[in-house]
Input
Amino acid sequence: MSTAVIQTTDLSFSFSNGIKTLQDVNLFVPKGSVYGFLGPNGAGKTTTLRLLLGLLKNQQGKLEIFGKEFSSNRVEILKRLGSLIEQPSLYLHLTAKENLDIYRLIYKVDRNRINEVLKIVGLEYTGKKKTKQFSLGMKQRLSIAIALLHQPELLILDEPTNGLDPNGIIETRELIKKLNREHNTTVIVSSHILNEVERMASHVGIIHKGRMLFQGSLPELQHMTSRQSALQIETNDNDTASRLLQSFSLKRVNDKLVLPFQTREQTAAINRLLVQHGVEVYALHAQQDDLEQLFLDITSQN
Amino acid sequence: MTKTKRSASFWLSLLGAGVIPTLFFLAYVIKPERCYSQDWDKHFIQGWQAFNAFLLPMFVILICSLILQIEYKNNAWKQVFASPQTIGNIFFSKYLTIVFMILFLFVVFNIFMLLSAIIPNFFYSKFTFLTKSIDWSQLYLLNLKTFVSLLAIISIQYWLSLRFRNFIVPIGIGLALLVTALILYQFRWAHIYKVPYAMTVLTLEGALETRSTGPVLQNHELNSIGYFVFFSVLAFLDMRYRKERG
Output
């Protein structure tokens, strides 16, 4: 059992309207992991992250970060983590360096570190440009730079790729993976984009309507999906192929044949069967959107 | 303090400090013959009278709101509260920034008032500013007493600006209280010395009367300190125990 950087026990929270935004959330973020915190909009992701930072007063349940109870160790814990919640918090009338300088003093960090983090996020040439003139992508990157200033052990990122173009999304993702790989930084990233989470996370937690529906490693989640995976075949003669594969629960979707995936050996056997009977197999692969289907299944059941 | 760089509060301080001295300067330069009877005493008293009554409290109301709005506008409160600073630290650093801006205003006002008298004197030698000396201890006392009487307003406006995200609410409330206080002052209400927003104007009245006699701090100034302590504690507890921060 790995040590937890973040651990919550029966965390519950309601806003003043009385609606339970979070109910019995038991979060477990292992040390050194990239934890993808998944959920549809309004599921409670941001509320959970705000509680982790003390931006919301904890009402019910236990909240531990770095093995310490949050409310009695607030400043000590906050020294070791960096965060980016919702929209970037930047002083628009100041330049990138000036923004970093403000936080540098709070985190008691060396002046050289400012240029270092600007280089890490690719903003070292912004010079005297005021932040209000930055694009959204640049603002996001500057916010990440602020979060990285004091070399935190834990990064809490709330939808960091929100509003970024594909290039920006890839860069952010690679940056997170790099920090995790080279500095062993634990990262918890919330998102509603499944593909993104799948490409960088080592662990996943799925939250829906304030409740945790799944929590575990990515392979565990993918194992769940393989049970529901499908095999997609493209041939030159779908009629013959359908007849040959009658014993499988075959479906014809447009010009493709879809049947439930069982094992890799079975896939090879299907291919052999078709080829031996003169059918030309143009494509044979597993459907890519399994995680999405699983996610929809999980969240629709509740 | 870096956050106030190039922000509205800096320019407001310069503007606030410059208005009255500029008017005096213009009066001296445009109609000098009417002003030759002016001496340092009258110059400062008249200047502070105009300053204390409305401009200074108004400035404090605006500066408290503006300094805190830097965070609201930039959505930065959440980053401030998620940084490793105690709540006390966050509370006092903002408070100190406001006090510093007000002191800056005082300094600039004094300098501008000096210049507004000295410069015309270079051109119109019939003025006596350059030949007569300034009663520095009186001037210092006036500054000090005015600042003390301002403490009540500072604390109330700080509390209001922390409580309300909306820019206009604390300004509206402050303005309403200020106007009410000035009206009560005009009517010579018996309990006027308890009204926080009237304290600056009372200080000037008191300064004229108790020149070299009497205690340094009068009743209303002591009351101002009392209000300051009360509202500061209230504002701190508000920040400390609030359910939602940032």
Residues 87-123 of chain B form the longest helix (37 residues). Chain B is about 75% helix and 0% strand.
